[in-house]
Amino acid sequence: xxxxxxxxxxxxxxIYGEEPNSFIKSEAGRLRDCPAVVCFAEGEGRNAxxxxxxxxxxxxxxxxxxxxxxxxxxxxxxxVKVETxxxxxxxxxxxxxxxxxAVMVFGHFYGQDQKNVFEKLLKAVKxxxxxxxxxxxxxxxxxxxxxxxxxxxxxxxQDMLEWSRGHHIIHFFYGxxxxxxxxxxTGKAHVIQLVLKKN
Length: 199
Description:
The protein has helices at about 5-10, 20-25, 45-55, 65-75, 110-125, 155-165; strands at about 35-40, 55-60, 80-85, 100-105, 125-135, 170-180, 185-195. It has about 200 residues and is of the alpha/beta class.
């Protein structure tokens, strides 16, 4: 999680596009009773801005300053407010029960760190709150349509189910989806989707 993300986002173009992730767009109705939402590893802000347009109070966390600047620029363009915070999620100390929902789309972390980040998503959300995420599965390594080229940074569905133990799983999906998001997510992909209600 070095400066590569700052460099990657340091362009005029939104490399993952300005439109929200298709899964977040389709599932956003589940967040209607969640006024305060945090977006982990939010990148250039496309999902945060979409949720702000839906009326949520959104906080976007990312390690790349260039991504946060583009988030603010996109928010201004769409006439909404998004609070941005630079955070290395491996070191970030989530404040307990701070948000009504937490969202993460394609947060890329090595296997040994994935559970740590997932637990921070859970910690940040109040009991009864929602966790919503879409990540690339390990199968994605065969597709070449986006995401890390290191299988250790992709996710295992069994791990995710194990981490979710004790909470109410509202939606779980493991399989193929088409993702056309900017220049780096292009075509058929293999993903894991989770919507969870925290107990």
